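Technical note accompanying the year-one report. For the benefit of new consortium partners, we illustrate the data format agreed upon in the data management plan: each record pairs a sequence with a structure-token string. No post-processing was applied to the example shown here.
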Amino acid sequence: MKVPFDIKFRPQIESGEVKVVTRDDRPVRIICWDGPSFEMPIAGFIEGRIEPDTFSSSGNYRYDEYGESDADLFVILPLPDNIFKQAVDTFGADHQIGMLHEEVGELLAAINQYARGRVEKDAVVTEIADVMIMCEQMAEIFGREETEAEKRRKIERLAGEIEK
């Protein structure tokens, strides 16, 4: 989950548990937490830049303290391990099975539209992600261990077919 940068995440950032990115999702490596300027105390390297940048301590650690920028800082928080179970518990198994039908239909439509040149690749990628999320929830409903075991068997079979 992507949220605005806050100094309270420093321990998790330093441990590697939480990643720092820009508004436009470029990775950032923080190199200084207490810079010489009170107004711009954070310094870091944004991927693709040669010089380190500084960030304002007011307004969510912005690159430019006077307005939004693609270089404003955010952190990527880990999702709960049981997010898929939580979704099933919250919305119900029957509802999520219905959602799977909808998402699979949207994926099929996106693939057909892509094949006809009507949508770009990112439309298909979005629908693939939706179906993958729903499949994780289906594993929660129908049995995670059984699903993982069957997935392993199918991958091993695929590997055997490739090696032929």
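Partners are asked to follow this layout when depositing records. The longest helix spans residues 93-115.
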